[in-house]
């Protein structure tokens, strides 16, 4: 093979090993016949064609790899596409890239072929880059937020039923024991929120970003609370309304399709925000928490449940998550969230990190997707199903590695005399 090679030609596997000096933790092969990595690895990645190489060269990092994988140009053996956890674990824990020098990069690109620097069209599942979303309005305007939410949540209610299970809860569960089922853990999550909010019959609860109405229905059914939920996803709202009707909770529970900023009612006894903060933008925290404070009566509690970073440094969201999963999503640490809540006027009373619980939740969702893989592919298509498998597995590794966390922060709107209506010790732990 080398006898007929152009002297300047570079084999794909050689190019890969040049930027991974510590070696590959999995087997890699390419369409040019080259290979690298341990031959006995249980995980095998194969680059099938030139388009895949163009994806990788024109979008270095996770975006190019994802494009090639979603398009079918990068194949993975040794793990199910619904749950490529082992590959993600190896890549995120053991694989390290080293940026080549300009001269080395030039040599590699020249050897692989200049024609591969023409980017192929991205897969249709990919959202526009952040800077090109201006046609949807300014970032975190009502119009653009609605478009971002619908990109992710209006995939298919049937698809979400297969992945999330009967609870239709798309946030971190709380496992009361290591062997608890996903449904038991999601019920415990809603009940923990209710206990932290000290819900009692006759109270009024506002649940912003209510999803499929799980918290609204739990509060109404288990605590006799008058619960109002709001979501920007029309699909979620339709499903939630049907579930409320099915459960006979119409007299207590309501879900609206709309923006939480359009809620006119005030004097709520409690507010729950479960998985919304990630979508509103860090710069909008003052307005967000100010709005929620304004909707509470004195003594009313807020429970903010959201994904957080392990530190409070601002950094851009990765291209894969921003383009394929949560357009315009943004994370920060619990310290920034607590600071913004305090500066708005809330008194923060309790914070809890549920990082390990989210890793277990994601593993359960991956298992559900794998169990319903054929139906999921038929419902949303192979490419979208593969995106979800990759996303769930990568996020699971992220929580296991403490790159991301999940914090519940409990706060109260004080009375004018600074009383809080809190007992001397927490009651939600008993």
From TrEMBL:
Positions the record marks as coiled coil are: none
Q: In the record, what terms sit under GO molecular function?
A: methyltransferase activity
Q: Keyword Oxidoreductase: yes or no?
A: no
Protein name per UniProt:
Class I SAM-dependent methyltransferase
List this protein's GO terms for biological process. methylation
Top enzyme class of this protein?
A: transferase
EC numbers on record: 2.1.1.-
Family matches, as InterPro entries:
CFA/CMAS, CMAS, SAM-dependent_MTases_sf
Q: Into which family does the record put it?
A: Belongs to the CFA/CMAS family.
The answer to whether UniProt assigns keyword Lipid metabolism to this entry is yes
Q: Which organism is it from?
A: Kribbella deserti
What's a Pfam family this protein contains? Answer: CMAS
Q: Any idea which UniProt keywords this protein has?
A: Lipid metabolism, Methyltransferase, S-adenosyl-L-methionine, Transferase
